[in-house]
Design brief:
The structure holds 2 protein chains of 2 kinds. Chain A is mostly helical. Chain A has 15 helices and no strands. Chain A is flat, with a radius of gyration of 26 Å. In chain B, about 70% of the residues lie in helices and about 0% in strands. The chains are: A mainly alpha, B mainly alpha.
Amino acid sequence: MSTVQTSMPAQTAAAGEQSLWSRLRASRNWAALWFMLPAAAFLILFLAYPLGLGIWMSFTDERIGRAGVFIGLENYLWLWDDAIFWLSVFNTILYTLIASVIKFAIGLYLALLLNRHMPFKAMIRSIVLIPFIVPTVLSAIAFWWIYDAQFSIISWSLIKLGLIEHNINFLGDSTWARASVIFANVWRGVPFVAITLLAGLQTVSPSLYEAATLDGATNWQRFRYITYPLLTPIIAVVMTFSVLFTFTDFQLIWALTRGGPVNATHLMATLSYQRGIISGRLGEGAAIATAMIPFLLAAIAISWFGMQRRKWQQGSNND
Amino acid sequence: MTDSALQTKAPASAVSDDSEGMSYLESLPRRLITLYLPLFIILVVLLFPFYWMVLTSIKPDEQLIDMEKFNPFWVVHPTFKHISKLLFETQYPRWLWNTMYVAVGATFLSIAASVLAAYAITRLRFKGADTVGILIFFAYLVPPSILFIPLASVIQAYGLFDSPLSLILVYPTLLIPFSTWLLMGYFKTIPYELEECALIDGASRWQILAKIIVPLAIPGLISAFIFSFTLCWNEFIYALTFLQSTPNKTVPVAIVNEFVDGDIYKWGSLMAGALVGSLPLVILYAFFVEHYVSAMTGAVKE
């Protein structure tokens, strides 16, 4: 950034007009350097450097309290033959896929509902966002109690309704545990999707719908040919964020199941914590974390193209 | 946006409001089925865990355990035993204080750094400003789940392990990208002319930022502030990894680790803990709903 600054004295000697201009320009870069410094310091020290360090650690056998030596791909080869690792990859993809699809479907539906006018509209909108505001762990604890094997309110209600005979072992049975954590994740994610999509919906002009209705369009056609195309870019961005955060989810699982029963809900992030921090094999934990990066890059690429398309649709004068 | 402002003033009856777009085409029974019923069901599902949290935290133990004699959906003789036990017999106030201290510290640091960075990127137009803006967007997408192991060893190396200070220094990596991105959007809306006038009057860059840009971007600053505060309060994996001793923990970590003792009577205090930990954020949210929404949607839309 300060390359112009360093070459300044030579130019000063050359020409008066030129030097004034270049000094102005140089001083702007110089000022920007100072303005950027605090943010850059934080991001380099605690984000960029650890990111690189993590990839390096995945090639070492570092443990807690002992520096590691370079062992090449050994961690990865070890993980390649590890059934639990592959189970966690499968779980992560399953969890992300199902939760994201449901979040998108319900979120879009809720956004469409909230976009219609009704009494107490503003209040209903603010209530919808509450699950997103409350810290995940604290609401997960509430779900833990709701899913309790003995005192679950869901089991109790279903028994009273005569639908089931015995308590459902929500967090003790593999399939139920997966369904339960996905439900809790969807519960927390839907408000985010709904409110951001609602913001997109509000920018769609009502006259488009009126014109389509005059032309005899049905409800579905209005959604399919007006709402959906205009909303596509924001859907792309929102869903990328949603997929990214679901894929790397840690706290919900840790508070509810800690990866159990029999690793049925272990995600890559929780497995990485268990191997890296609890068992102390930092190198192996870092390798699991690094294995998430390709998936994240794919999601980021999709987000990037979504935004480019948005700019293209709306003209580039909005940046 | 003006449209939605008009709509909020709509008359309560759905049948008679034929001034409001096309909704007069719908009959009331139809609205009931297609709008109010699904909305009601979704709202009930979204709010039930909170109802359950509140109910459990004021329910006496015997009513929690005996679901046959007492209707579990209601409470007969509410008690504040769980909450008082939480506040006076555990280290909960200490954890609450830690969480608050970390959240406020990290938020202030991040906002200060973000204001400077956002101003430099949007207004100084230095060489490579666009690239830096994109890099900051990417930083927003790096999740804590892939950083906590290397960060633990960095924190260890700096001698900050088991100290809330480590969180104050690490959380800005989550907050700065988000706040910078949000503030860039706000700064872009401030007319250049104001700055040019100030420059002609001899103001320095620093004076322009402090006396013109920041006062005009106050709504953006509030949005960034409360959203950052919420993110700090919500953060879990770094706090879980870096903090070891009980008195240093934050609320989310302490709730998960300190109350789980296998006691079937733990639920009252657990729910009370979750409730008290959520309340500050819900109250903050109640006062700043608009700012929250603009922070959330602003960051996605930019």
